[in-house]
Amino acid sequence: MTDVESSISQHQQRHADRRDHTAMDTAQLQSSVPTHIDINDRTARAALAARLGVTEEQLRKTVRLVGTRVRTIEAHHRA
Fold first, then answer.
1. Which residues contact 49 (CB under 8 A, 6 or more apart)?
2. Cα–Cα distance between 39 and 6 in angstroms, integer?
3. Which of 3, 9, 27, 55 has CA 20 to 30 A from 48's CA?
4. pTM
5. First to last CA, the chain
6. Residues with Cβ < 8 Å from 61, sequence gap 6 or more?
7. Distance between alpha carbon 21 and the CA centroid of its chain, in Å?
8. pLDDT tens across 36-73, in order?
9. What is the pLDDT, as a whole number, of residue 31?
10. Do 34 and 67 touch, CB atoms closer than 8 A?
């Protein structure tokens, strides 16, 4: 293998490694952010209510109206 071929091969490997890390970071981020709330989980309920600036009872009512998907709940409270 020539020096040029070796250099190209090393560059391609670094680029592939970077892609792998980016995909892994995205997957880890998505798995750490819940898409739905377990309304019976007191800690999760309190955290989401605090983040939205609503009471836990208001959060419970919203879940009854729109479901448990966090993005939908957030949109409901922004409206």
1. 55, 56, 58, 59
2. 56
3. 27
4. 0.59
5. 63
6. none
7. 16
8. 999 999 999 999 999 999 999 999 999 999 999 999 99
9. 57
10. no
Q: Is 36 helix (H, G, I), strand (E, B) or coil?
A: strand
d(CA 79, CA 63): 15
Going by C-alpha positions, the residue among 46, 44, 49, 51 that lies closest to residue 62 is 49
> pLDDT tier at 21 (50, 70, 90 boundaries)?
low
**How far, in Å, are 3, 5, 32, 72, 79 from residue 55 at the CA level?**
65, 63, 24, 17, 17
Contacts of 76 (CB under 8 A, 6+ apart): 62, 65, 66
Following DSSP, what letter does each residue of 49-74 receive, concatenated? Answer: HHHHT--HHHHHHHHHHH-SBHHHHH
